């Protein structure tokens, strides 16, 4: 008999590194939520049975009202927080032709920053390895 309790599976979360004119979008999480005030790549939890790409398009419509074109899928990885683990599934994207300008429906603020500036922001800890994957 195995006495070790099974750990809950990591929660799958998609995020978008949206690049425009050489700058990358960061979005600030609202205060009062987990990781409140920290900066992240927009995205969110994948629903059961949903493809990661579909989750990405759905979350970006909900959060920013914009549409994107995925240009690269980065390697997913697991990050452990003290409340549980997430499996972060990052995509590099650009705004789709004809997309509405992104607006923060759920975030406190959006900024477009140079690659070199990304690590100067207080990022959600799981996002630091994503920055390191970007060339
Ligand atoms: N959207 C997004 N979430 C991220 C990133 N990095 C990171 O650690 N996360 C975490 C924050 C949340 O705990 C979870 C995504 O949840 P969510 O954005 O869909 O929803 P939420 O804030 O209501 O989640 P929660 O408070 O219930 O954890 O993944 C990121 O770059 N983008």
UniProtKB/TrEMBL annotation:
GO terms for molecular function: 8-oxo-7,8-dihydrodeoxyguanosine triphosphate pyrophosphatase activity; 8-oxo-7,8-dihydroguanosine triphosphate pyrophosphatase activity; 8-oxo-dGDP phosphatase activity; 8-oxo-GDP phosphatase activity; metal ion binding. It is an enzyme of class 3 (hydrolase). The keyword tRNA processing does not apply. GO terms for biological process: DNA repair; DNA replication. Its EC number is 3.6.1.55. Keywords: DNA damage, DNA repair, DNA replication, Hydrolase, Magnesium, Metal-binding, Mutator protein. Residues 9-135 form the Nudix hydrolase domain. Its cofactor is Mg(2+). It catalyses: 8-oxo-dGTP + H2O = 8-oxo-dGMP + diphosphate + H(+); 8-oxo-GTP + H2O = 8-oxo-GMP + diphosphate + H(+). Belongs to the Nudix hydrolase family. This is 8-oxo-dGTP diphosphatase.
């Amino acid at each position: 008999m195995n006495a070790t309790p099974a750990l809950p599976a990591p929660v799958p979360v998609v995020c978008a590194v949206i690049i425009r004119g050489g700058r990358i979008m960061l979005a600030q999480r609202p205060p009062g939520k987990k990781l409140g005030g920290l900066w992240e790549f927009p995205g969110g939890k994948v629903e059961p049975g949903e493809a990661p790409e579909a989750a990405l398009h759905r979350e970006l419509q909900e959060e920013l009202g914009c549409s994107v074109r995925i240009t690269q899928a980065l390697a997913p990885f697991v990050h452990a927080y003290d409340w549980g683990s997430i499996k972060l599934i990052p995509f590099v994207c650009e705004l789709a032709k004809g997309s509405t300008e992104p607006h923060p429906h759920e975030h406190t603020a959006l900024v477009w920053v140079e690659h070199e500036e990304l690590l100067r922001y207080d990022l959600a800890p799981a996002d630091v390895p994503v920055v390191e994957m970007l060339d």
